[in-house]
Specification:
The protein is mainly alpha-helical. The chain is built from seven helices and five strands. The protein has helices spanning 14-39, 41-46, 51-74, 78-98, 114-136, 139-144, 149-152; strands at 102-104, 111-113, 179-181, 186-189, 194-195. The strands form two sheets. Strands 3-4-5 form a three-stranded antiparallel β-sheet, with no helix packed on it. A two-stranded antiparallel sheet has the order 1-2. The two termini are 27 Å apart.
């Protein structure tokens, strides 16, 4: 059996490299956001937001984004990468409803509509995530996440040569010369139509 040639190395699509770097950068910003929320907890409470929720969301987003970015660079854990994008879409859908609808600016006393700004930001985030999800499902990108080709094909083996002729090369029943069948590693008598 002939196997197709095995490529020496997989080539990472450039779009996947860009996405991986962006995921890692965004995860770093998420960690900074969590650290900022921890440092400025009193200000968040004054405007009606829970600093604990912001910290937890920032840390979880950071971990998920970092794991997905590294998985993309390594070409591993395709389902983790897809799952990270789907979770990001779900968070973007829920996020506007977790924030207060409006806050009062402590300096000017004006009402600031958070829900409208958050809905617009979530819509843009979801659109970007859907484009990323579409890209990740393209054939050349999915192929990069497959195991290395050398692991998919068994090493080619040389066909087994027939054993040297022996005294048993003639059929003991009819005396016809036997034919060796490598597939079964046995001799065949064409006259008797039996293996010997």
């Amino acid at each position: 059996m002939t196997y197709p040639p095995v490529p020496s190395a997989r080539k990472r699509p450039i779009g996947l490299t860009i996405l991986a770097v962006l995921f890692i950068i965004v995860s770093v910003f998420a960690f900074f956001g969590a650290a900022g929320a921890a440092a400025q907890g009193a200000i968040l409470e004054a405007v009606g937001m829970s600093p604990t929720a912001v910290i937890i969301t920032g840390v979880l987003s950071g971990i998920l984004g970092l794991a997905a970015g590294v998985a993309m660079l390594m070409g591993r854990a395709y389902m983790l990468v897809i799952g990270a994008v789907v979770i990001y879409i779900i968070i973007s859908l829920i996020n506007p409803f977790l924030q207060p609808a409006a806050i009062t600016d402590p300096i000017t006393g004006q009402q600031i509509d958070l829900r409208g700004q958050s809905l617009a930001g979530s819509a843009i985030s979801i659109l970007i995530a859907l484009v990323v999800l579409f890209y990740l499902t393209r054939g050349h990108v999915k192929a990069f996440f497959q195991p290395a080709p050398s692991a998919m094909y068994p090493p080619p083996t040389a066909p087994t040569p027939p054993p040297p002729p022996t005294a048993a090369s003639a059929c003991p029943t009819c005396g016809t010369p036997l034919q060796f069948v490598p597939q079964y590693q046995r001799y065949w008598c064409p006259t008797c139509r039996q293996y010997r």
